[in-house]
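Sequence only, no structure available. Ideas?
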Amino acid sequence: MARTRVVFLTLLVALAPASAVADVTAFIGTTATPANRTAAGVAIGFGILFLGFEFEYSGTGEEPLEQAPSLRTGTGNVLLQTPVAIMGLQPYFTTGGGAYRESLGSFQETQAAFNTGGGVKISLLGPVKARLDYRVFKLKGEPLHSTVHRLYAGVNLSF
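Reply:
I predicted one. C-alpha cells follow.
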C-alpha cells in the first residue's frame, strides 16, 4: 500500500504542469530588403519547458530614395527553445504567421505574412536577457518585395 502511494505521488509530481514563464522583448534592428532601414518593435510571449508562443509587432520606415517601402508586421509565432539557458545562452527556432502592410508613396499592400528564423536569449542579470534574432518573412499577395530579411537586438524581461 505504501509503495502504491509513493508511485502515485511520484507520477503526480512528474505529470504536474511546469510553471509557465512569460516575457516581453523590446527590440531595434535592421530590415535589409531592399535597403537597410531601422526596424523596431515589441514581442510578448510565454513558454512551458521547450515550447513557447509569442505575439510580435514590428515596424520599418520607408526610404523613398532607395525605393524601400515601409513594412508593418503583426505575427503570432511558435518557438522551440532549450528549456533552460546553457552557459547563459538559450537558443531558439521560431516560425509563425500573421499580417503585414507594405507601403511606398501611394502604393500599399496588406496581406498575409509568414516568418521563419531563430536566435538566442543571453542571460545578463536575473530576469534580464539580451536577445538576438534573425527572421525571413515571406509576404503574400503582390508586395514590392516578397522575401524580407530582418535582424535585431533587444532587451528581454522575464516575469
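The domain at 19-158 is CATH 2.40.160.20 (Porin).
Hope that gets you unstuck.
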